[in-house]
Amino acid sequence: MEKELAIITGADGGMGQEITKEIARAGYPIIMACKNAQKATPICEQIKKETGNTQIEIREINLASLTSVNSFTEQLLKEGRPISRLMNNAGILTTPTRKTEDGLETIISVNYVGPYMLTRQLLPLMRPGSRIVNTVSCSSIIGKIEPKVFFEKGKSGPFFRIPVYGNSKLALHLFTQELAKQIQERGITANASDPGIVNTNMITMQAWFDPITDLIFRPLIKTAAQGAATAIHLALSEEAKGKNGSCYVNCKEKKQSKRMQNHPF
């Protein structure tokens, strides 16, 4: 039986490439949803060569632009192709604070608002058995959602990207839990993947001590393949088939804290 479409955001990044490879090996037609098609093209060609799956295409999407998200989803809705897997993998950790064209703080837009809109708008194309996997973060433990400043500044007070990143991932985690309840009757699942601390280009403080930190710290953290393994497990494994509203770490379901279970949203 022919498999239906898989969409992977940030598919040209470290973990995104690993996720794309494994879903390609499983035989799914894939859309690599990337910000820069030129950068993604050689990666796409290499994945096709490695996996033997030629049903892979690149489409541009900028999660820091709601216009871009709308254009991306409008095209898919016109085509009407059923979506079997939606992997909200893309994420950023930037310095300093920046606002998008929509007036949103950039980290909040890319890590939460963009994936939220993308998912909501693509739900009509999903059928029973479809799986949504959202990449969250262990940093959500320090997250705090302050309604008056969350969207425009990320948090009150001076901007510091780590707490804002944690806020964005907390919001995505809470969205995953709420979405799971709403789509359960349709036979669609939504789960969160926490990759842990992964050796990607995102891990830098953009400061003078980065080379020293890299020398000491990077060998101790996960490779991109290790970080991607949990999202791949949620997307493809039989064990995760009936799971909904769960968070997985190291390919195992993690017990939700009382704070996460009862957090206002």
Give the amount of beta strand, in percent: 15-25%
Rg is: 18 Å
Q: How many extended strands?
A: 8
The share of residues in helices is: 40-55%
N-to-C SSE string, H for helix and E for strand: EHEHEHEHEHHEHHEEH
Unreliable stretches (pLDDT < 50, length at least 5) are 212-218
Structural class by secondary-structure content: alpha/beta
Strand order of the largest sheet: 3-2-1-4-5-6-7-8
What gap, in angstroms, lies between the N and C termini? 40 Å
Overview in brief:
With 265 residues, this protein is of the alpha/beta class. Helix content is 42%, strand content 16%.
Description:
It is globular, with a radius of gyration of 18 Å. Helix 3 packs parallel to helix 4. The protein has nine helices and eight strands. With 265 residues, the chain is of the alpha/beta class. Helix content is 42%, strand content 16%. The chain has an eight-stranded mixed β-sheet with strand order 3-2-1-4-5-6-7-8, sandwiched between helices.
Tags for this entry?
single chain, 265 residues, eight-stranded mixed β-sheet, alpha/beta, globular
Topology (elements, then pairings):
Elements: E1 5-9, H1 14-25, E2 30-34, H2 37-51, E3 56-60, H3 66-79, E4 83-88, H4 106-122, E5 126-135, H5 150-153, H6 161-183, E6 189-194, H7 210-217, H8 224-236, E7 247-249, E8 252-254, H9 258-262
Parallel strand pairs: 1-2, 1-4, 2-3, 4-5, 5-6, 6-7
Antiparallel strand pairs: 7-8
